[in-house]
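So, can you check?
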Amino acid sequence: AQVAKVANNVGVLLEDHNRSDDAQSAYRQARLVDPRNISALLNLHNLTRREKRPEFAAVDQELKDLIKKSPPKYSLWSLATVFGYVRSPEYFAGRGWAWAMSGKPNLGIFELQRAVRLSGGHSQAQQALGSLFLSQQRTGESEQTFRDLLVKNPENRVAILGLARVALLKRNFEAAEGYLARLEELKSDAGVIAQYRAMMAAQRGDNAGALKLLQKLVTDYPDRTQIWAALAAVALDLNDTKALDAARFFFGTATV
């Protein structure tokens, strides 16, 4: 079983390097060594379907027969552990977030890029990639990723907000306001838009104006942790003990 798992993983690596003929041979070898290796069958199915290979009909029937005999009981994660990687956008996107959350964002970016390539530019994977680029201050790559999303869907709210965040990081306040105004037109979350306007005021040096906006926001949205965190940061800069005490009270009692 271990030899089959290795053969399957070699197939995934070969596909990543555009050697699909060799990858197909590796997946078939994995199936010969261990006919139970579902990962190799799924990878073979994906490859032959995507490239419209003549073997697809037979592989498709083989997969259908397997599902009929034994309904799927493995998740993509457990399949990877038992039989080897499944070359699937969902799998790589999941791995990407797992790496990012474990403090290894560069590995997360690598896996999400694989997910985007495999999915043909699936919006959710691209949105996640753009946000991860931004969290690493890779503003150029983040901006390009969000712009690519807008080409496909000019009303993609996640992409528009992402571009507003990039503009704020670049201190391009006019562009940031333009994106926020566009989100208003699309009837996006008013609280999120107002929060970013408060952040923009703070970046411009108008901490008093930012605090005023944030105090209204915590009244309108009393359970939003991000707004309270922004209020605490601005209040600290202003040495506003009353506002700071309110934030301390929230974080002392809120369930985060």
In short: The longest helix spans residues 2-16.
